[in-house]
Amino acid sequence: MAERVKAAQYLKKYNIQDLFDYIQSEVVYNKPPNPREFVAQLLANLIDGKIQFYSDEEINILFKKFEVLDRGWISITQCKVALKDIGINDEIVKEILGQTEDNVSETQFTTLVKTGIQMRINKWKGVSK
């Protein structure tokens, strides 16, 4: 039983299930003729930092999805939902938002998205930050 708990802790520490979910979604979306080669290249690109998850334009579109009143900001609650919608888990969301209770501007949101994604990738790579 202790080994099972240790294994679960290890998988959680390195966000392995999240990594597998990402790989699987990429394989299904791209339907490569050689999935093994595709996965190997995908992992190499992740390690080398050659994958950009979202462009600034895509982040802007996401922000505007939540910022429908043209105020120039979204609430912290909307920000949390948006971050979770793009695959940034609760643990990372809490860490990057800290004690923030203010509204979030588009510039701040872009920074939060990029930071959250980088933290997600770093967890896959076994890097602490």
From TrEMBL:
Organism name: Hexamita inflata
Annotated protein name in UniProt: Uncharacterized protein
Organism ancestry: Eukaryota, Metamonada, Diplomonadida, Hexamitidae, Hexamitinae
